[in-house]
Amino acid sequence: MAAEAADDARNAISRFFNNIGKSDATKQVIIGAVSGFATGFISAKAGKTVALSVGGGIIILQVANDQGIIKVNYNKVNRKIDKVADKVEEVLTGRSASWTDKVVNFTKRNTPFTVGFVGGVLIGVGISA
């Protein structure tokens, strides 16, 4: 029964998108605008929740680490971040960028500040958006 419902939904979506392609430009623009607005609205609402959850979680973990409740191995975390940053940098530019090294070094020296900053940004975006 669930498989039939899923097939019906797939067929309806397929027919919908096939019909859009055959419609005139005005109808396509209107459907695109409405669906884009709905997607943006839903994404913003979901984004707020995700930003608040992730930002709050990051701050709670940092406070717990600072209070000795948990122990975070920042050397291991920094090594992983360095590897990922190096790979992304090589793919995007083909060479190392000096600003990335400065950011990574600052992050290593000032981990609590960096974690608080990132968490605060995520919460700020979540509340203000």
From TrEMBL:
List GO BP terms, alphabetically: autophagy of mitochondrion
Q: Write down the Pfam families for this protein, in alphabetical order.
A: FUN14
What is the membrane topology noted in the UniProt record heading this document?
A: Multi-pass membrane protein
Q: Where in the cell is it found?
A: Mitochondrion outer membrane
Question: Primary place of residence?
Answer: mitochondrion
Q: InterPro entries in the record, alphabetically?
A: FUN14 (IPR007014)
Keywords, alphabetical: Membrane, Transmembrane, Transmembrane helix
Q: Gene Ontology terms, cellular component aspect?
A: mitochondrial outer membrane
User: In which family does this protein belong, per the annotation?
Assistant: Belongs to the FUN14 family.
Know the name of this protein? FUN14 domain-containing protein 1
Q: Which source organism does the UniProt entry give?
A: Dendroctonus ponderosae
Lineage of the species this protein comes from: Eukaryota, Metazoa, Ecdysozoa, Arthropoda, Hexapoda
